[in-house]
């Protein structure tokens, strides 16, 4: 074993080959590029070494093309183990076991999102407060974000939150649920997760910047047709049930966030709020399943169509958002 | 004598004098106010000049006060039990949550100490015969809307004019020279303070909101009586309503003190104090902050 090992640094492609060492194709490739010796350096187990030797032996006898190469690389075959393998051609070749499917986990590169997203709690509300107060708060928020990774998520995404709890066994408790609401501004920003556990609906309101939160994981990133999914309390339980052992789905770092245009079916009335009224402006409920057209028309009595033309209620945050986004990105990259 | 102040005086005399009526209004009995602001009748470049010179003047004055070599401070004395230190004048910024190391969440108000200077020293005899006092001023403000007597006080201290000016009773070993700036580092986290400010004015309010009366029921035959005070006193024996009877009137816009507030955090770069709980007053209002002496029963501290 020691004779096969070399001291030189092994290039990364060798590492990849190490997982595919039993594959015949790999043999051919690396036989061309590197000497047998250098490939042996990455192999760890002695049995693998022997298998290499046997495979090589089979290879040489089976394919004529490599004869020339064999002549070139003969000096690399001078290892004692390989000679022994070449010598033992009389024994039965082992039953061919296909190689295990490689799972390449590239831990060296983190998936950096190219989608620039500003979390809604950074945008200050329209108040007569000194912007300096928001600046100081933002500094604290960025300090916390440097320690804990708060990912991008929306109402409708499925999250798993691990919180430090002195009364729980293991001092941590983990809750998985669908995010139904994101509220608050600045350091007091909150989000509510809902799940149904043992036929009991459970909602937990977490503060994003609380130091008790150890990890926030996005299991499924998606948007819904509304920003506020409080109507899920009155919907059928199947829409809120999330498997606590759900595996995280891969999130694409580029492109738009997928919008789930699901229209939810509701339980029979009465509901906790009159969701059909236009002030809630809900797109994600199948009203035709629970209400008659007359009831829908009656709900329109509470419509306030002049509100969309009210200029005093306009709050254009585009410039502010750009400014804050550039500031946050600058501070986070420091 | 700085040229700026005389300019302002001249401007006021020539242009916006309140007591002289224009000719077409002489003889009118109704009071006619003719006040203007300082730069209404100035040309554009003059307005700019006034603004620039004021700003430069302020900067020069603050810079002068920061240099201890030019301006020697008074002697520092040792702290003794029962000595009182000067307080600060701060601006209320807003409220934020704060978490302690054990994970408990508290809500704090952020107070910023903006341009706080000591303006005058009043000795025992001048003030009340028992304790000396220091007059401290808060936020910088324009000199054009301040009266001559106020401006004289600021001029003597060599300090820009302030929006809020308060007196602090101070023991003799804590006297500070007029003109010294005061910062948020005056207090440390863990100390307790009293904060005084003018509460938000609510205007003329009824008895239920102002004094917390219960009012009357909404139904069961009540005729036009749902938020009224009801009875106003005992009856025939006194045959009068006592003085101080709680009745509707103007509510708010009075000085209210919140006692025993803990300081959670001090930001010395931006001069911000994080003070526990809520504080009377609206956002960006000026407050008087002083050390808590634990003599009052309405305190947040439990000791």
Radius of gyration of chain A, taken over Cα atoms and rounded to an integer in Å: 31 Å
Percent of residues in β-strands of chain A: 5-15%
N→C terminal distance of chain A = 47 Å
Would you identify the CATH H-level superfamily of the domain at 88-201 and 252-291 in chain B? Translation factors
Distance between the termini of chain B: 53 Å
Q: CATH topology of the largest domain in chain A, anyone?
A: SH3 type barrels
Quaternary form = heterodimer
What is the number of E strands of chain B?
A: 12
Number of domains of chain A: 2
The helix/strand series of chain A, from N terminus to C terminus, equals HHHHHHHEEEEEHHH
Major sheet of chain B: order of its strands? Answer: 1-2-11-10-7-12
Query: What is the name of the CATH architecture of the domain at 88-201 and 252-291 in chain B?
Result: Beta Barrel
Name the helicity range of chain B. Answer: 10-25%
Count of discrete alpha- or pi-helical segments spanning 4 or more residues of chain B: 5
Please give the order of strands in the largest beta sheet of chain A.
4-3-2-1-5
Q: Any low-confidence stretches of chain B, pLDDT <50, length ≥5? A: none
* Alpha plus pi helix count of chain A: 10
Radius of gyration of chain B: 25 Å
Helical content class of chain A: 25-40%
Bulk shape of chain A: globular
Would you mind describing this structure in some detail?
Chain B: It comes from Sparus aurata. Chain B: It is found in: Mitochondrion. Chain B: This is Large ribosomal subunit protein uL3m. The complex is a heterodimer of chains A (334) and B (303). By secondary structure, chain A is α+β, with helices and mostly antiparallel strands. Chain A is built from 10 helices and 5 strands. In chain A, helix 4 (46-62) packs across helix 6 (80-87). Chain B has 5 helices and 12 strands. Chain B has helices at 3-14, 44-66, 124-127, 148-157, 207-211; strands spanning 88-99, 105-112, 116-122, 132-137, 165-170, 181-182, 192-198, 203-205, 249-251, 255-267, 272-276, 286-291. In chain B, the strands form 3 sheets. In chain B, strands 1-2-11-10-7-12 form a 6-stranded antiparallel barrel. Chain B has a 4-stranded antiparallel β-sheet with strand order 5-4-3-6. In chain B, strands 8-9 form a two-stranded antiparallel sheet. Chain B is globular and about 75 Å long. The N and C termini of chain B lie far apart (53 Å). The mean pLDDT of chain B is 88. Chain A binds chain B through residues 127-130, 132-133, 136-137, 140, 164, 166, 186-188, 207, 209-212, and chain B through 91, 93-94, 96-97, 99, 103, 105, 110, 112, 267, 270, 272, 283-284.
């Amino acid at each position: 074993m020691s004779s096969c090992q070399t001291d030189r640094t092994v290039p990364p492609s060798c590492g990849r080959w190490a997982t595919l060492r039993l594959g015949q194709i790999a043999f051919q490739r690396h036989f061309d590029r590197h000497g047998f010796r250098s490939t042996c350096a990455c192999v760890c187990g002695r049995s693998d070494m022997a298998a290499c030797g046997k495979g090589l032996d089979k290879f040489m006898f089976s394919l004529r093309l490599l004869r020339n190469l064999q002549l070139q690389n003969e000096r690399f075959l001078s290892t004692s183990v390989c000679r022994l393998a070449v010598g033992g051609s009389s024994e039965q070749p082992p039953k061919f076991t296909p190689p295990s499917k490689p799972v390449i986990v590239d831990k060296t590169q983190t998936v950096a999102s190219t989608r620039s997203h500003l979390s809604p709690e950074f945008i200050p509300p329209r108040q007569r407060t000194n912007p300096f107060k928001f600046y100081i708060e933002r500094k604290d928020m960025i300090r916390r974000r440097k320690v804990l990774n708060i990912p991008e998520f929306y109402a409708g995404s499925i999250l798993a939150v691990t919180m430090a709890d002195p009364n729980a066994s293991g001092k941590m408790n983990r809750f998985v649920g669908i995010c139904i609401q994101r509220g608050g501004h600045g350091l007091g920003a909150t989000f509510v997760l809902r799940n149904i556990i043992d036929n009991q609906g459970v909602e937990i309101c977490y503060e994003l910047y609380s130091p008790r939160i150890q990890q926030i994981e996005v299991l499924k990133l998606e948007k819904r047709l509304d920003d506020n999914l409080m109507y899920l309390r009155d919907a059928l339980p199947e829409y809120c049930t999330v498997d606590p052992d759900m595996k995280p789905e891969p999130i694409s770092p580029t492109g738009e966030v997928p919008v789930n245009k699901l229209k939810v079916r509701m339980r029979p009335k009465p509901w906790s709020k009159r969701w059909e009224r236009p002030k809630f402006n809900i797109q994600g409920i199948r009203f035709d399943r629970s209400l008659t057209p007359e009831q829908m028309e009656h709900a329109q009595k509470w419509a306030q169509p002049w509100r969309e033309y009210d200029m005093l209620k306009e709050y254009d945050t585009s410039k502010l958002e750009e400014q804050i986004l550039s500031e946050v990105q600058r501070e986070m990259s420091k | 004598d700085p040229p700026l102040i005389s300019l302002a005086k001249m401007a006021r005399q020539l242009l916006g004098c309140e007591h002289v009526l224009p000719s077409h209004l002489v003889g009118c009995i109704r009071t006619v106010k003719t006040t203007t602001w300082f730069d209404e009748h100035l040309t554009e470049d003059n307005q700019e000049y006034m603004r620039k010179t004021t700003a430069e003047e302020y900067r020069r004055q603050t810079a002068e006060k920061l240099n201890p070599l030019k301006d020697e401070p008074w002697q520092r004395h040792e702290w003794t039990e029962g000595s009182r230190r000067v307080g600060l004048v701060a601006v209320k910024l807003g409220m934020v949550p704060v978490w302690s190391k054990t994970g408990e969440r508290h809500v704090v108000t952020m107070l910023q100490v903006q341009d706080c200077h000591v303006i005058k020293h009043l000795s025992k005899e001048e003030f009340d015969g028992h304790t000396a006092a220091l007059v401290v001023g808060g936020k910088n403000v324009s000199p054009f809307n301040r009266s001559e007597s106020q401006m004289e006080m600021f001029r003597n201290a060599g300090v820009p004019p302030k929006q809020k000016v308060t007196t602090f009773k101070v023991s003799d070993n804590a006297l500070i020279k007029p003109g010294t700036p005061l910062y948020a580092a005056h207090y440390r986290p863990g100390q307790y303070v009293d904060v005084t400010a003018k509460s938000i004015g609510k205007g003329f309010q009824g008895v239920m909101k102002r004094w917390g009366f219960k009012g009357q029921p909404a139904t069961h035959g009540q005729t036009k009586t749902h938020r009224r005070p009801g009875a106003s006193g005992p009856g025939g024996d006194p045959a009068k309503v006592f003085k101080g009877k709680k009745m509707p009137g103007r509510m708010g816009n009075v000085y209210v003190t919140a006692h025993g507030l803990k300081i959670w955090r001090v930001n010395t770069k931006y001069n911000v104090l994080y003070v526990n709980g809520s504080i009377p007053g609206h956002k960006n209002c000026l407050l008087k902050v002083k050390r808590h002496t634990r003599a009052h029963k309405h305190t947040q501290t439990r000791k």
